[in-house]
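Supplementary notes for students who missed Thursday's class. We covered one full example, reproduced here. Read the sequence, then the structure, then the short commentary at the end.
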Amino acid sequence: MDERRREFLEALLTTPAPSGYEADSQRVWIDYVEQFADEVRTDEYGNAVATVHGGDTAVALAGHGDEIGFIVRDLTDDGFLRIERIGGSDKTVSRGQHVTIHTADGPLSGVVGQTAIHLRDQDDESVPEVAEQHVDVGAADGEELEALVDRGDPITFQQTLSDLENGRIAARGMDNRIGIWAAAEALRRAAERGTDATVHAVSTVQEEIGLQGAKMVGFDLDPDAAVAIDVTHATDAPDAPGKRSNGIELGGGPVVARGSANHPVVVDALRATAEEAEIDVQLQAAGIRTGTDADAFYTSRGGTPSVNVGLPNRYMHTPVEVIDPVDLDSLAELLAGFAVRASESAPFAVDV
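Structure (token representation):
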């Protein structure tokens, strides 16, 4: 990954975007894609679409721009915040963490309280629900706190982006900054190479709370095929439950899902692209649902051939998600190749 692409990824990773509050991150993405897209547009909820115009065949390469987080639910008389989840935030990793409350007056630092081990009941190590946890910003009382924070202000973990060994990186929000990075980068590469198809790169909103942005933009775009780009579980870490093993490893390449929403013709087109470009890909089974925007895209407008392509990710929905940038670059290359040759694969329909 060259310096410019790394800077773009870091800008995405360090710009908070909890579901429903994605505007700042969407602007970072738009500023990047405007350099090479023929057209960039947004809708009323902030879904962003960058387009390179080609022929009649149109494909959408979509990541979701939002992340999990928390929201201020209530303010206590003694100066603490009560919180609620935004998306699938994990109660087992929230306590004892530094957080940022994104207020109208700017970011406010706080910590999620954790009772010291010396004071806890050693016979009860259960983890309280997020709604029972609290944030301490140092306020003396409720009156002081009310001058600082409003109910409904979003909260994220304070960002730490770390370079690990072998080029791997760890950060909050890999899910799914990598998806919108890959969509943008694939669009750039497709534009440089020339494409007979029209290619839409998409950054959707509110995926973490029900795939809502994909429902909106999928209907609006009505592409011939859609690729939902997201992270997927790498189960190569020591604590991954054996019964949930999927054979996916960091460094093994992007992951093409099969089954459920994943259209077999689009799957075959991606696999053929990978073979031709000598890109290693991994396969993943999706027997019921993908859990990604593909589940919304494929039922839009009576049926849009769709597929979920994932990036191996360790420790999903924690502040320390780990990815391999080599996988990420291969993902962008796979998507660009698919887009450039999309008109050759169309129409995307099963042979019945």
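Commentary. The chain has two domains: 3-67+172-345, 69-157. The longest strand covers residues 225-233. If anything here is unclear, bring it to office hours.
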